[in-house]
Amino acid sequence: MSGRRHATAQAAISGPRAPLESPGVEDAIKLGAECPHCGQPWLRATAAGRYRCVNCLQRYELMSMCPNCGEHSTIVRMSSTSVVACNHCGASMLRAL
User: Where are the alpha helices (DSSP H) in 3-95?
Assistant: First the structure.
């Protein structure tokens, strides 16, 4: 099959593609937790209870006591989906190192 006919056949099979600028695309893609310093969604776990922002390279430690309201919370250090927000007030439980 020639390259041109093959490309046309592939387009017919896959259908039209949505443009990257379509509404709601940013909401659908979750890149990661937001960095408290720069606000970018590039916060990554580096070790148990430790995080680093890939954008600004700021390092953080997950605290068991909320710095905003003082509420104590259990830290699930070995989970890949750790909650970094206070369950009581919603503030960040991360402390810059």
Answer: 3-14, 25-28
